[in-house]
Design a protein that fits this description.
The complex is a heterodimer. Chain A is 78% helix and 3% strand. Chain A is mainly alpha-helical. Chain A is elongated. The two termini of chain A are 31 Å apart. By secondary structure, chain B is mainly α. Helices cover 75% and strands 0% of the residues of chain B. Chain B is globular and about 70 Å long. Chain B starts with a helix and ends in a 5-residue tail after the last helix. Classes of the chains: A mainly alpha, B mainly alpha. Chains A and B meet through α1, α2 and α3 of A and α1, α2, α3, α4 and α13 of B.
């Protein structure tokens, strides 16, 4: 619960930062003819962060966009089974992506590039493995909920 | 043999409700694995989200739309449009179309139009004497009207995806914004004529124009009137880039709704921000992973093969357009608009360009078809939202929406075969 609160706060904070910086940049550019040099780069990275943290929050209740063409018309009981498979599959895919993006971030760490100001590129990219790990964990949990229901049906 | 079995399994998983991003990721993982490419490339592609400046507009416009959806803008908009357009024959129906179009343009066709405006318009229409079935169909089908008007999110998203493709002709979002205006007006016009004709034996009493009500309604909405001018004037006056217009809109809406109208308490803001960013997260995640699979598609020259295959059977651009319309209608019926854009544009756009279709025109055709998909079964979002909101069965709403669907389809045909309607304001 506390972690969810932190996550929400981070998401809201990132958005506020984004709006604030973007508006400041407009004023600076129009009034003084020049903005903060690294601000545009930071704004673009904020978009990635907001998107991935938003995606993490969306996985709490399995709120991701899906083509639930068949799912909508399945009986309640069958849904529990398909839900288990679907969620486990999603979790596994996210694990794979998390692992390989971690390798990518390690590589970038070795290069030591700077993204903007003094912030290294690898730090900006670190959100990718982090977000996919969190999403994977959430889908493992969701599939576990379905598994518990299946066990309950059986007994 | 094995690739086909895998593809079948993935399709099955997708229709059973696997999140789309996971399905696309699975395709890329398999594809890159097959091509012997290190899977870390997926992370590189996702990071391209941070290398696309225009994407900044997406979270900012979405947030502004959510704030507008939560405040009483819908009420003010209906009152204002009614005060100025209500005196015309068929007044209230026209009011409904215009109000819905404006509201949807700003709230991004997320279904909030039906919840916020439908709740006001449906009782008003039946009270004014419109038949229930007509009112129901109108509200259900108007929830996606305005998709073609700036700054609607699907329009921006189409531009972003098309820019990633580099198909020769440039696709700027400024051009897309201009291109959508006349087609959207055509839709409103045709729908208005239809409602006049439909109610020819059902005379609705005229409402006379009241200068006093007009002034009162204007005074009430005065802080929101600048919004469209902000966006359009700012961009075409050369004051703003698109993402700057988005930032200004977000900031303006925030200040106006929280501090001037005081309809949103500061304590409500975190929840609104979270909800809007969850939606942005969902879209950006799919977009990010699709960047990876798109690259794989282009490497494998899938669009080129597809073009050659179609070219062998269809040589005429006009016949191709018919098939395109049919395909898009079906897609619109089974996919939501964001998934449809992200998955299909990379495949359809290169093929269409090869047939000599302007990419901007293609965008308008694509979205005009998708707009109809919003209220076609089995997954038309408007049907489910309206059904939930008005406590009517989906089938009843679907039947009520059919005449509107036919009218909009006529509009789609005009839009498809009359490119100048979309391209007239563009310098090309």
């Amino acid at each position: 619960m506390i972690l969810q609160g932190v996550e929400d706060a981070v998401l809201v904070g990132l958005l506020l930062l984004m709006i604030g910086m973007a508006v400041t940049q407009i004023f600076l550019r129009n009034l003084f003819g020049a903005g903060i040099v690294w601000s545009d780069v930071m704004l673009r990275i904020l978009v990635l962060w907001v998107g991935l943290v938003g995606a993490m929050v969306a996985s709490r209740q399995d709120n991701h966009i899906a083509i639930d063409l068949l799912d909508r018309y399945l009986p309640e009981r069958a849904k529990v089974y398909t839900g288990f498979v679907v969620r486990l599959f999603t979790a596994l895919i996210c694990m794979i992506v998390a692992y390989y993006s971690l390798l990518f971030v390690q590589m970038e760490f070795a290069y030591g590039d700077i993204a903007f100001a003094r912030v290294p590129t690898w730090l900006c990219e670190a959100i990718i493995p982090f977000a996919f790990t969190v999403i994977a964990l959430r889908y493992f949990l969701l599939s576990f909920v379905n598994l518990k229901k299946i066990v309950k049906f059986r007994s | 043999m094995i690739p086909y079995i895998l593809a079948l399994i993935l399709i099955l998983l997708a229709v059973l409700g696997t999140p789309l991003f996971a399905v696309i990721l699975a395709v890329s993982i398999l594809g890159f694995h097959y091509l012997d490419v290190n899977l870390s490339v997926i992370a590189i592609e996702i990071y391209r989200i941070a290398e696309t400046p225009i994407l900044l507009a997406l979270p900012l416009f979405t947030f502004a739309g959510y704030v507008l959806g939560e405040s009483r803008t819908s009420y003010r908009l209906v009152r204002f449009t009614q005060a100025f357009l209500g005196w015309m024959p068929g007044g209230l129906a026209i009011v409904a179309f215009v109000a819905c179009a404006f509201f949807t343009a700003f709230t991004g066709a997320s279904g909030v139009t039906i919840v916020a405006l439908g709740a006001l318009l449906y009782p008003a229409l039946t009270r004014a004497g419109y038949r229930e079935k007509f009112s129901m169909g109108l509200v259900t089908s108007s929830g996606s009207l305005g998709l073609l008007l700036p700054p609607s999110l699907p329009l921006i998203l189409y531009g972003i995806i098309a820019q990633q493709m580099s198909v020769g002709a440039t696709v700027s979002i400024n051009d897309l914004f201009l291109a959508g205006i006349l087609p959207a007006l055509l839709m409103i016009l045709l729908l208005s004529f239809y409602s006049l004709w439909e109610n020819r034996r059902n005379p609705i009493p005229y409402q006379s124009f009241s200068a006093r009500e007009a002034v009162a309604a204007l005074r009430e909405i005065i802080w929101e009137i600048p919004l469209p001018f902000f966006v359009l004037g700012g961009i075409y006056g050369g004051f703003f880039a698109i993402s700057e217009a988005a930032a200004a809109t977000a900031m303006y809406v925030l200040v106006v709704e929280v501090f001037i109208y005081k309809e949103i308490k500061p304590s409500q803001l975190p929840a609104i921000m979270r909800e809007s960013m969850v939606m942005v997260g969902g879209i950006l995640l799919i977009l990010g992973v699709a960047l990876a699979s798109t690259n794989f598609l282009i490497d494998a020259e899938v669009p080129m093969h597809l073009f050659n295959l179609i070219q062998a059977h269809v040589t005429s651009k006009y016949v191709f357009l018919i098939f395109l319309n049919l395909l898009l209608l079906i897609l619109g019926a089974i996919l939501d608009i964001f998934s449809a854009l992200i998955i299909m544009i990379p495949i359809i756009l290169p093929v269409a360009v090869n047939y000599g279709i302007d990419p901007v025109h293609l965008g308008i055709i694509f979205l005009a078809n998708m707009q109809i998909g919003y209220f076609t079964p089995p997954v038309g979002m408007n049907l489910f939202i309206a059904s939930y909101r008005f406590k009517k069965p989906v089938t009843e709403l679907y039947m009520a929406a059919i005449p509107f669907m036919i009218v909009l389809f006529a509009a789609v045909l005009v839009i498809t075969y009359w490119p100048a309607l979309s391209l007239v304001f563009l310098q090309r």
